[in-house]
Specification:
By secondary structure, the chain is of the alpha+beta class. It contains 6 helices and 10 strands; from the N terminus they run H-H-H-H-H-H-E-E-E-E-E-E-E-E-E-E. Among the domains are: about 70 residues, 434 Repressor (Amino-terminal Domain) (Orthogonal Bundle); about 100 residues, no CATH class. It has a 6-stranded mixed β-sheet with strand order 1-2-10-7-4-5, covered by helices on one side. It is flat.
């Protein structure tokens, strides 16, 4: 067993984790975890996965992964470095290509001007055609032989007095509606079976699940259709938090790798764990208040 593997195994035992518990927290296969403790990396997919698995193992048992890898770098495979090839210089254009480009660019600059000039000429021609057409077909107004202009007095008509309208009584002001009281929220334990504890939440339809971590713990959350609500499910560290909108969700299932390091709150109602197990499943069913 290597010195690195010994340190990791001692930290795991101090945390009270078995290899099965650690497999549930890190999602790393048990045989890889055992290989890390024994210093046998032959079954690993490659050097990159060796370093990644060691870092995840260390973080799960509360060790500084970067410091641990630096202290035991002689026991860990080095990262594979890829050769960086210098970029190829673009080919120098020939004189014929340069001439062709300059010719095409000159035509490209002149062509828009020619098109605009033709368009203006067409517009002027159309305007002139319509002007001539209107001038030819506009008949002259016949002038009345009568020199005088007859004036007709407008017929006077008495204005009919509009009947007085009766004033309609003012509508009574509607009494202000009293604001609806928001339903009270409650969270009650329903039962426990194995690693799973079920709770029933009664309250408003608008609700959120707040997940706060005070240490390393693997956490995932799914709804009643097994749809992932955390993207992605991951190992949360001290100070990490996640807020999940639960409007329209009738049930949420939270899988916690290290329960003592995670606090769950629905709106302002904190979930009180009924078990002291390291790994737990918390199921919350939601019932809207009438």
């Amino acid at each position: 067993m290597s010195e690195l593997g010994t340190r990791l195994k001692e930290a795991r035992i101090a945390k009270g984790y078995s290899l099965e518990d650690l497999q549930g927290v890190t999602k790393i296969q048990k045989r890889y975890l055992a290989g890390i403790e024994e210093g046998d990396y032959s079954m690993m997919p490659g050097p990159f996965y060796v370093r990644a698995f060691i870092k995840q193992y260390a973080e799960a048992v509360g060790l500084n992964s970067d410091e641990l890898l630096e202290q035991h770098k002689s026991e860990v495979p080095e990262k594979v470095k890829e050769d960086v090839r210098p970029p190829m210089a673009p080919p120098t254009p020939s004189r014929r290509q340069t001439f062709a480009r300059s010719s095409s660019s000159g035509i490209g600059e002149v062509m828009p001007k020619i098109i605009v000039a033709l368009f203006i000429v067409v517009i002027i021609g159309v305007v002139w055609f319509f002007y001539q057409f209107l001038a030819t077909n506009n008949p002259t107004e016949e002038v009345a032989e009568d020199g005088g202009v007859q004036y007709e007095e407008p017929a006077t008509s008495e204005e009919e007095e509009a009947p007085a309208t009766e004033e309609e009584p003012a509508e009574e002001e509607a009494a202000p509606e009293e604001p609806e009281e928001e339903p009270e929220a409650s969270l009650a334990e329903e039962g426990t079976q194995g690693e799973t504890t079920t709770y029933v939440y009664t309250g408003p339809a608008e609700r959120e699940l707040q997940i706060e971590a005070s240490g390393a713990s693997w956490v995932s959350a799914t709804d009643q259709n097994q749809k992932e609500l955390m993207e992605p499910a991951r190992t949360m560290q001290d100070g990490d938090s996640e807020t999940i909108d639960l409007e329209g969700v009738t049930q949420v299932r939270v899988r916690i790798g290290a329960t003592s390091n995670v606090t769950l709150t629905v709106n302002d109602e904190q979930v009180e764990y009924a078990q002291n197990a390291i790994t737990q499943n918390i199921v919350i069913r939601f019932e809207d208040e009438e």
